[in-house]
Amino acid sequence: MQPELVVEKWYDMEGRNIEGHTPLLHAIKQYEPHAVKSIKAFIQAGAEIHAIDKEGQGALHCALASPGGVQLCFSAVPETMLDWWAPESARAVDGFSGYYHWCAQKYDTENEDYAKHYSDEGLEPYPLLYSDVAENDEDGALAKNQLVIDHIYCKDNWNDEHLIRNPIQVLKKGLRFKILALLKAGYDPNLLDRNGRSPSHYAERDGLWPQWSWALINSGFMLDEESGRWVKASP
């Protein structure tokens, strides 16, 4: 998707595809490097941020729904299980090595052309949890502004080994900025889907609470313990 082309050609920002996704909802569900740029472009072009799809999911629900083929990686599933669930094209080599190579290829995680859209400069550290966690952080890892992306070796379908950025970490970092863009545009983080589930429910279910809370806190929200709702922090 080229967001400039969509906007310049006067595509209907509220038009729907077969899944009931507007251009904005479609962009939100993407995990390629250009996703955040597309989201920002469509919001600036006047896209309705609170649109919902045929499943009754809003933008944040769509953002927190793990991308196809990597759901298990986003949750706390042992890597030894990945071989059972990996896409067929990732099974040409043993174990999860081929899985990571497949993921890096599918989601283009080595592409740094859009790096400026994923800059942590001026934002709170990752993972931003709560003060009692930060106080017990002996090695100072929470003081780092950048989410550390590990480099790993993996094999392709010809058993050639490559050193790449961990694609799951790259995807999780990208997710933070998709959420951040929506929240800064005024999206309500407490909206429920058709089944009465909040984005917080999705984040907890899929092991994405650190990404979710980081974006919320960097958008000026805090969790009201009594109501369980995210509210704007007082200036």
Automatic annotation (TrEMBL):
<dbReference type="InterPro" id="IPR036770">
    <property type="entry name" value="Ankyrin_rpt-contain_sf"/>
</dbReference>
<keyword id="KW-0040">ANK repeat</keyword>
<feature type="repeat" description="ANK">
    <location>
        <begin position="19"/>
        <end position="54"/>
    </location>
</feature>
<dbReference type="InterPro" id="IPR002110">
    <property type="entry name" value="Ankyrin_rpt"/>
</dbReference>
<protein>
    <recommendedName>
        <fullName>Ankyrin</fullName>
    </recommendedName>
</protein>
